[in-house]
Specification:
By secondary structure, the chain is mainly beta. The protein contains no helices and 54 strands. The strands form 14 sheets. It has a 6-stranded antiparallel sheet, with no helix packed on it. Strands 1-28-27-26-25 form a 5-stranded antiparallel sheet, with no helix packed on it. β53 and β54 (559-566) form a beta hairpin. The protein is elongated and about 85 Å long.
Length: 569
């Protein structure tokens, strides 16, 4: 952890937000226990799911705390659990579950489905207390505030309606003090929100500050709020506020003496901590993938941070020590329409794996940079991993015209969490061109194509009538002679595509198309040295009409591919 003597309030750089799938950090006053929510499963779980779960980390390591909300009579079972909270002494834990009604009553009357939130409050070995609403609790576990808003005293059962300054008032997360003071905000329609404080016996007070977000300490003495990229401290007793840093996502200790927050370093959000009102900043992290969120313990001695690679770090501010308590967990974005073709390459969006692109050479490995892609439980060859995506080959032997499970997992022995599998539809033939945005004046995708001399076809070097053009493609399926999975195509004999297909050149005018002629397919092979990509050589028609961008369409039973091609008038 590095100290920065200069105020980072002077920094004027912006950073892209870091997204992680570990959220809802909650810790005890001494920082010895951490709760969090994520859809990840324990590594090796027998029945992994994509529902949110709550985990606990303490001196005994990491373990599952809850993967389902307590069953309630008369309502559907909530799916998963989320938004954990823990009291300062660790004796009370709360979390939420949501359920959706089907909206129909018999067959005669239906309304749109409605989503409801429940809150479970667990006090050591006692049965959980269920609130039929969302709730935010105080650090001592005595009070809960519902969205209406109403203050509930959980020890006496008393409830107090909080006067609402507006119909769209909301309770600010992590801002219910142990004396019952509540920080409220009016949330809409402006990006910056108006904040109010309410305390039992003291009434509602307009703080006269507009902020994007805010948190209040447990002693109800200090509010940390944001305006744009600036963070301010607000004294609830005097009404004075001052700028102390550039940053976002603040977390404040119970006594208000320490603040943790995110602020960019060379364009990447990192974790910082600072004693409130001082300029001795501690840079806690220097993670290449950035930091998504932080939470500081009630004592101000410990900060936990989630990185863009879905790792969790624990920073001991007293000892000056940093410990990774949860290793990185890959979190690919498996779309509902994910599909691929036997033998072809498939790209899946995923971040936080590598800082720079790593490419494999044939024969392709079953793991790369410490990660594996599993199809139906078996490793698939990996082509490359970049900061934004992973590319792999679908094995030739994968059963086609069927769904397969797909999972990305870390190969490290210390991996403790893993994402739930997705589904991918495996086809036997589904041609796709490689494309790139055309740019003005054409709105659409242009085909990646090359002249016979290897130069790229472009608007400044367009294709000529009757010319032979080479198109890289994927999804053309089986070849002869066959190639082993992960192996590169040989120089001889050529590996020839076995599935015939037809493509045409068309002139596009509005919603209508005029066929200019068929592409004469001269060859369709996997080029020597390639894995999972094809090269199609085709002769263009001898006339182009009156367009400088002709459409190319390949259409037949069960397949369709299209894009634009710059052509010479």
């Amino acid at each position: 952890m590095a100290r920065a003597g200069l105020r980072i309030a002077l920094w004027l750089c912006l950073a892209t937000a870091v997204n992680g799938q570990i959220v809802g950090l909650a810790t005890t006053d001494d920082g010895s226990v951490l709760y969090f929510s994520t859809p990840f499963n324990l590594a090796g779980a027998a029945n992994p799911t994509s529902a949110n779960k709550i985990y606990i980390y303490d001196a005994n390591g990491l373990r599952l705390y809850s993967d389902r909300f307590p069953e309630q009579a008369g309502i559907p079972e909530p799916i998963g659990t989320s938004n954990p909270w823990v009291s300062g002494d660790g004796s009370v834990v709360a979390y939420q579950g949501t359920y959706t009604t089907n909206g129909c009553y018999g067959f005669a009357f239906c309304i749109p489905p409605m989503t409801y939130t429940l809150t479970a409050i667990q006090r050591e070995s006692a049965a959980p207390e269920i609130l039929n609403t969302a709730a935010i609790l105080s650090a001592n576990g005595q009070y809960a505030v519902t969205p209406y808003p109403v203050l509930l005293d959980l020890t006496t059962g008393a409830s107090t309606a909080i006067p609402s300054p507006s119909y769209n008032v909301a309770v600010t997360p992590d801002s219910v003090a142990s004396d019952g003071t509540v920080l409220l905000h009016i949330c809409c329609p402006t990006p910056e929100q108006t904040y109010y404080a309410w305390a039992p016996g003291a009434g509602l007070r307009n703080l006269s500050l507009a902020a994007g977000s805010a948190v209040m300490n447990d002693a109800a003495t200090t509010v940390v709020y944001s305006q744009g990229i600036a963070l301010y401290l607000y004294n609830l007793a005097t009404g004075a506020s001052y700028l102390f840093a550039n940053g976002s996502a603040p977390s404040i200790s119970r006594d208000g003496q320490w603040v943790a927050f995110l602020s960019p370093v060379t364009g990447v959000l990192q974790a910082w901590a600072v004693p409130a009102g001082q300029s001795e900043f501690l840079q806690l992290s220097s993670d290449p993938f950035g930091v998504a969120s932080v939470v500081i313990s009630g004592s101000g001695n410990v900060v936990y941070a989630v990185t863009g690679a879905n790792a969790i770090w624990k920073y001991d501010l007293i000892a000056g020590a940093a410990t990774q308590v949860v290793p990185p967990t890959p979190a690919p974005a498996f779309s509902a329409t994910l599909g691929g073709v036997i033998g072809s390459q498939v790209s899946i969006p995923v971040t936080g794996l590598v800082a720079q692109t790593i490419a494999a050479t044939p024969p392709l490995p079953s793991g790369l940079a410490g990660y594996q892609v599993l199809l139906n439980g078996s490793p698939a060859p990996i082509v490359s991993i970049s900061p934004a995506a992973l590319v792999f080959q679908i094995p030739w032997e994968t059963p086609a015209l069927n769904y397969a499970t797909i999972q990305l997992q870390a190969m490290a022995a210390n991996a403790v969490l893993q994402s739930a599998p997705g589904m991918i539809f495996i086809d036997s033939f589904l041609p796709r061109f490689l494309t790139t945005p055309c740019g003005a004046p054409v709105v659409g995708q242009c085909l990646v194509a090359a002249h016979a001399d290897g130069t790229a076809v472009s608007s400044s070097n367009p294709a000529q009538a009757g010319e032979v053009v080479n198109f890289p493609m994927t999804g053309l399926g089986a070849v002869a002679p066959p190639i082993p999975t992960g192996a590169a195509a040989p120089a001889s004999p050529p590996t020839v595509v076995q599935h015939p297909f037809v493509c045409q050149l068309v002139e596009v005018s509005g919603s209508s198309q005029t066929v200019l002629g068929d592409l004469q397919m001269l060859s369709a092979v996997i080029p020597p040295g390639a894995v999972g990509t094809y090269l199609v050589a085709a002769r263009l028609p001898v006339a182009f009409g009156d367009t400088s961008y002709a459409g190319v369409t390949c259409q037949g039973a069960g397949y369709y591919a299209a894009g634009y091609l710059p052509v010479a008038l």
